[in-house]
């Protein structure tokens, strides 16, 4: 057959039509998959589906919420290793074993329906009941530092309170966050709960997060992250819970058990390579015990940098334009030291160095296993220095002391949401310490360690002239 221009044009046209058919078929297949296990390409569709699911949940008995939460706990515990490994692989931050422990804390120690306590007033005029009721659909912004742990913790608390959730994960932890949402959705379905009670978006971005915050069907916004995102949700005009940054100091005075204090500080600072905002970010030590404290720290996995030139090089390396260099956030101490030209073994967990209170490593939340140590003449000076370093964030602080007056003054002066006395920082979030766990610690907006009751509205129901049996 001769391929003249007409024939060639007909063939090209036929090929184009076949390709168009193929595109339509593929797009239909994508549409079928869109929304599977709670992951949507459209923010508006995700919110709409979550709203439908919340109506079903709210119309159901509390027993269903309890079954859902039990199922989530079981399935996330089973997937803790997978999620921890995925987070480290995707973000390049943290330690797998510590992330497993954080997932266990989230499933075992996040309060459920039992956190919702009713109150009543009874008298001559009848009975008034105060109950906690859901907001509806909550938009939850989650970080890359604790991606799946925050999703799990918030999902349990928010569902317990009767809400559905639209998660806006950090783009740097997209796979981990979406996998957590998938596991939670399957767990909800297994327990007989509604589809799309927990949803997220296929392409996390600032634009999509803003769409979530602004959507009229989102009745509450919860942000776990840096000061920028917290400020954004606080100015949204909606009920907002903001869990912001911290720069927790650890004060050690001359009455402390120095051996234990050294171990606790290194354990807390190195936990998940210092990613938690609750972790020790600097040490303020009374001069008379500082040398011994450093000696004991070295016995527990700390590497001491003494040379000012090396410390300056470290500072230049891990800071960029006055902020932490993301290339080193959450990295192992051995990795950071190797980039300084120092080879050490895996037993080294933290880099320590003496600085003054104005040093960049001390005044910035680094989110790295780097721990500056500041000497002070006594505990009273130490309290002043610690308060200045904490910078009014009112997040977390630690103290190691046996002096009841100093312990009391430190607690009063620091005004932090979490204060840990004579223990590692992670004791304050329920790991090795009493109390429940959370990964959304709302210092800026005042809710503190959030739980189910943080995600519920107070409602008053008044019955006049009846049911008072006094």
Nearest-angstrom radius of gyration? 26 Å
Helix content: 40-55%
- Show unreliable segments: 19-32
Overall structural domain count = 2
Major β-sheet profile = 7 strands, parallel
Q: What structural class should be given to the helix and strand makeup?
A: alpha/beta
**Architecture of the largest domain, CATH level 2?**
3-Layer(aba) Sandwich
| Number of E-state strands | 20
CATH homologous group name of the largest domain: Aldehyde Dehydrogenase, Chain A, domain 1
- Report the total helices: 16
Distance between the termini: 103 Å
**What percent of residues are in strands?**
15-25%
Name the assembly state: single chain
Overview of this structure, please?
The protein has 470 residues and is of the alpha/beta class. The protein has 2 domains: 36-244 and 450-460, Aldehyde Dehydrogenase, Chain A, domain 1 (3-Layer(aba) Sandwich); 249-434, Aldehyde Dehydrogenase, Chain A, domain 2 (3-Layer(aba) Sandwich), CATH 3.40.309.10. Helix content is 44%, strand content 20%. It has 16 helices and 20 strands. The protein has helices at 5-33, 43-59, 62-78, 80-91, 96-109, 147-160, 174-190, 206-214, 227-234, 258-270, 287-299, 308-318, 333-338, 360-363, 379-390, 404-414; strands at residues 39-40, 119-123, 126-134, 137-141, 164-168, 198-201, 218-224, 239-243, 249-252, 282-286, 302-304, 319-320, 323-324, 350-354, 370-376, 396-400, 418-421, 441-442, 448-449, 456-464. A 7-stranded parallel β-sheet has the order 11-14-15-10-9-16-17, with helices on both faces. Strands 1-6-5-4-7-8 form a 6-stranded parallel β-sheet, with helices on both faces. Helix 3 packs antiparallel against helix 6, helix 4 crosses helix 5 and helix 4 runs antiparallel to helix 7 (174-190). The protein is globular. The termini are far apart. Mean pLDDT is 92; it is low at 19-32.
